[in-house]
Amino acid sequence: MSVENSIENISTILVIGAGTMGRQIAMSAALAGFSTIIQDISQEGLTAARTELEGWAASRVAKGKLEQGAATAALDALSYSTDLDSAAANADFVIEAATERLDIKTAIFEKLGVLAPAHAILATNSSTLGSSKVAAATGRPTQVCNMHFFNPALVMKCVEVVRHEETSDETVATTMELARRLGKEPVLINREIPGFIANRLVGAIQREALFLADSGIASIEDIDTTARTALGHPMGPFALMDMVGLDVIDFIAQATHAETGADTDAPNQRVAALVAEGKLGRKSGAGFYDYK
């Protein structure tokens, strides 16, 4: 592996997007000792990210789960910027966690191909879009891959590293090692497939759960109870969909169906109807269950 494209050459990480995933990925990097930049087009979003991360760190210290010195060092390692040009110019590794729209991501990666140093690896946190869709825009497709974290990124250990046909072995090795240094347990997906590993496994369970409920075979409560008490799942599929957000579940289904065209991947009508009613799960107060 060349020095230019190795873990030893990574000191500054740029995270694009200050939303829930972006800010938690950035904090994970800062806690691991990397100088970390959070970039977003919204100053309000950056301010909210700073406030939340400072509050999270203070809470962990108060509970005795994080030493004050480590919290201070991590917060000091974080910087915030609305200027992509300057942020990218100093990045050794970029993790894009922007809105899940291909046109937005393509535009970002096109800019990164010009702005980021020649050695920088460019990764997308997308859970639905393979990096091959944005790789060509960078002019350096061998240095592009998916680095998919799970929500909440500060807690969840799994990171799916997905290579496309042109991703180099060096890029894969460096990305896997970076995930380990962030305290994660990376898994490698050798070729792109909609849903990667985790979402495909969860999606299969969710589809079967919806079939059982839609067919009147069992109630959503009893299906969830079975998943917990027979399979050992921490929560049932309907409670999990409510936690993730039914709008997110519907979006993933739409994106997967657009990719595969398979009837089995078509969005579920019950989920779509709940979304249309504004019942998105926990975040809206109601979904399959009522949280009010």
From TrEMBL:
Family the UniProt entry places it in: Belongs to the 3-hydroxyacyl-CoA dehydrogenase family.
Occurrences of domain 3-hydroxyacyl-CoA dehydrogenase NAD binding (ranges): 13-190
Alphabetical UniProt keywords: Oxidoreductase
UniProt-recorded name of the protein: 3-hydroxyacyl-CoA dehydrogenase family protein
The organism's taxonomic lineage, starting at the top: Bacteria, Bacillati, Actinomycetota, Actinomycetes, Micrococcales
Domain spans labelled 3-hydroxyacyl-CoA dehydrogenase C-terminal: 195-291
Matches recorded under SUPFAM superfamilies: 6-phosphogluconate dehydrogenase C-terminal domain-like, NAD(P)-binding Rossmann-fold domains
Organism from which the protein derives: Paeniglutamicibacter terrestris
Pathway info: Lipid metabolism; butanoate metabolism
